[in-house]
Amino acid sequence: MKRWSLSVAATLLVGVAAPALANDSVLTETGNAKQWAIQTGDYANTRYSELDQINKDNVGDLQVAWTFSTGVLRGHEGSPLVIGDMMYVHTPFPNTVYALDLAQDGRIVWKYHPQQDPNVIGVMCCDTVYRGLAYADGLLFLHQADTTLVALDAKTGEVKWSVVNGDPAKGETNTTTVLPVKDKVIVGISGGEFGVRGSVTAYNIADGSLAWRAYSTGPDEEMLVDPEKTTHLGKPIGKDSSLNSWEGDQWTIGGGTTWGWYSYDPDLDLIYYGTGNPSTWNPSQRPGDNRWSMTIMARDPDDGMAKWFYQMTPHDEWDFDGVNENVLFEAEIDGTERKLLFHPDRNGIAYTLDRETGELLVAEKYDPAVNWTTGVDMDPNSETFGRPQVVAQYSTEQNGEDVNTTGICPAALGTKDQQPSAYSPKTGLMYVPTNHVCMDYEPFRVSYTAGQPYVGATLSMFPAPNSHGGMGNFIAWDPVAGEIKWSLPEQFSVWSGALATAGDVVFYGTLEGYLKAVDAATGNELYKFKTPSGVIGNVFTYEREGKQYVGVLSGVGGWAGIGLAAGLTNATDGLGAVGGYAALADYTALGGQLTVFALPN
Amino acid sequence: MRSAAPLLAFAMLVAGAAFAQDSSGANTEAVEDDGVRWFNSDGVPTFKIEADGTVDWPTFSGYRRYHSECHVCHGPDGEGSTYAPALKASAMRLDYYEFIEVVASGRQVVNAADNQVMPAFGTNPNVMCYLDDIWTYLRARGVDAVPRGRPAKRADKSEAYAEAEKACMES
């Protein structure tokens, strides 16, 4: 509480000293389509660019314009930023930052190499990925694996301030990007597989002092909720909403981490993000709804106060983290223009909500293979309104500890993971990279040790049975009708973020290493090029001297690199199937490279 | 633990030729059962697969624990990932005592090309109480005595095993 009053004082000081708020900077920079000024393309997370020089008629002529090696192997998620003449490139651990001057053919103007204790690598659940830098007011925000948040002078690489958000000795790490909003920078945390208690923290941009911290679980005052005003499905959440949904003090090691994407609506003045899985993966060890894990949260960026929550998967039994992107868009629903939020969840259901109120409007499966639920109860008068209806056969809770529940779709990877969707206002469609993988899941009892994995389930994964045999799809989704418009089968999970452009083209990368361009209306493949390593980075675009460029980071890894490297098997298929599925290792190897494309002169 | 290693090495030198080995040259034959698990002629834990494919309980348990604690880096079935080695091979290269030491103390290979850090699991009962299980599972994978995926048939957990497990997890 002392920290709180200090931070209020700091905020007041900043208010006087720095009248220009960061969101002006972010809005200005992202409003210029020639730049790529934020990981998500814009505050709304559309990953849409107005650039149209590269279009569906000429994208087939695309060529590699230039390349850059990051000097780091392992999984490269996220994308570089382009601001003015500069491109800022990040890497996985050790989280090196390069400032490249595009006016000087990509000369390295400065390089920042943080010193981090390599022990943090051992407590990162799924490779040493990092989803990239953020920019506001001449500062670059680097959030290192060890949770050190550093503000760098974008011109010189000089450290302006740094602050430590978590403790890797307790399994607290970082993989995600931060969101600069107004005079604050919003920061998440990873470590759900280590029993980390999730939180979101706001630091003051001026000096790195802590402004507020909102936990995902626990007492009301630590979650920054108002029991009477914060709502869930239109109703106040009430007193002790989280404490009442856990047995004992399990919530203190109960997860709900915040490692996904953040969006912001400047008009409603709300930030949006999702919380991760409850810990452990053994549901029998944590009776109750485990609130507010697996929840979309809408909060006031000034003080962190929650406006509304929506819990997608109460009492998770499959590791379906709720952290995927929330894409903000507008569309007509039943004749009325609405401010909407689209969320394709790990659990296989794509949700469309009213982002002002949290009203649930659409909830439909976005992969027909999804079988653990018959769907979400959409009847507002029902006792189970808003809850997924669980199929007993696929319930690891109902089947119990030490029982292997087989054939659950999707796998723990989810129908999608962090790989972000794109939205084109021209087509009104969401372009969603997906996984097409199912699993067997056997929970068992585990004990908690600080800083040690706290998992409690064995699982084996395999391509969705009775389908095309591949492990992924790239789909176009109608977020109002709740329907797949078209679906492209992929051999591997699509673990790369999509880009949609005004040229009616949608781009994405594949785990074999291809950059692909498809027609936004039909999904027809228009171009592909095999980059040096598998792609789990996000496609981005920018313009210089009248020329549009499209780029992507290659560097296979992440969870996809763990699960798919040696190929998947289905134990229930018996011996004959071993080796029958594609192994990623047969297609690509480690790398760390940026490839930038353009049309020929 | 460490003081036992030279004794073991000596025993292997003497006994190496006398006892049956599998085609890989590894001494994996189960010769003795203490009620909890099987051991080879060197007194090192090993797996026991029946003619009908039934896997002994501790090795099955090793499959489960591996796919909880280890696979998040080392990939399914001990096959390795994009950045962590295939443990089915490591378990054949390292001896039992080296294996225990790496798991308990961790290992780092951090240089220009590699950023590999294996954490120390010495304080983690979910790993340490099942380390012999994980060892026999990986050895079984290493000589292909157990195929990829979940073992189709397994023996039941013995009372002695359950007691030992309880004692370890509650200690």
Oligomer: heterodimer
CATH class of chain B: Mainly Alpha
CATH architecture of chain A: 8 Propeller
Number of strands of chain B: 5
Work out the strand percent of chain B.
5-15%
Q: Which regions of chain A are unreliable across 5 or more consecutive residues at pLDDT < 50?
A: 1-19, 571-580
Helix percent band of chain A = under 10%
Query: Any idea what the CATH superfamily of chain B is called?
Result: Cytochrome c-like domain
The arrangement of helices and strands of chain B along the chain is: HEEEHHHEEHHH
pLDDT below 50 for ≥5 consecutive residues: which ranges of chain B?
1-21
Beginning-to-end CA distance, first to last residue of chain A? 61 Å
Query: What is the β-strand count of chain A?
Result: 40
Main pleated-sheet profile of chain A: 6 strands, mixed
Instruction: Identify the CATH architecture of chain B.
Output: Orthogonal Bundle
Specify Rg of chain A, calculated over alpha carbons.
22 Å
Mean pLDDT of chain A: 93
How many H/I helices of chain B?
A: 7
Estimated structural class of chain B: mainly alpha
Keywords, please?
heterodimer; A: 601 residues; mainly beta; Methanol Dehydrogenase, Chain A; six-stranded mixed β-sheet; five-stranded mixed β-sheet; 5 helices; B: 171 residues; mainly alpha; Cytochrome Bc1 Complex, Chain D, domain 2; three-stranded antiparallel β-sheet; two-stranded antiparallel ribbon; 7 helices; 8% strand
Fold blueprint:
The complex is a heterodimer of chains A (601) and B (171).
Chain A: H1 2-17, H2 22-31, E1 48-49, E2 63-69, E3 81-83, E4 86-90, E5 97-101, E6 107-112, E7 134-136, E8 139-143, E9 148-153, E10 159-164, E11 179-181, E12 184-187, E13 199-204, E14 210-215, H3 220-223, E15 231-232, E16 235-236, E17 263-265, E18 270-274, E19 295-299, E20 306-311, E21 327-333, E22 336-344, E23 349-354, E24 360-365, E25 373-376, E26 388-390, H4 396-399, E27 405-408, E28 422-424, E29 429-435, E30 437-443, E31 457-463, E32 472-478, E33 483-490, E34 499-501, E35 505-509, E36 514-519, E37 525-530, E38 540-544, E39 547-554, H5 558-563, E40 593-598
Parallel strand pairs in A: 1-34, 15-20
Antiparallel strand pairs in A: 2-40, 3-4, 4-5, 5-6, 7-8, 8-9, 9-10, 11-12, 12-13, 13-14, 15-16, 17-18, 18-19, 19-20, 21-22, 22-23, 23-24, 25-26, 27-30, 28-29, 29-32, 30-31, 32-33, 34-35, 35-36, 36-37, 38-39, 39-40
Chain B: H1 4-15, E1 32-33, E2 38-39, E3 45-46, H2 57-74, H3 87-93, H4 96-105, E4 107-110, E5 115-118, H5 125-128, H6 131-142, H7 159-169
Antiparallel strand pairs in B: 1-2, 2-3, 4-5
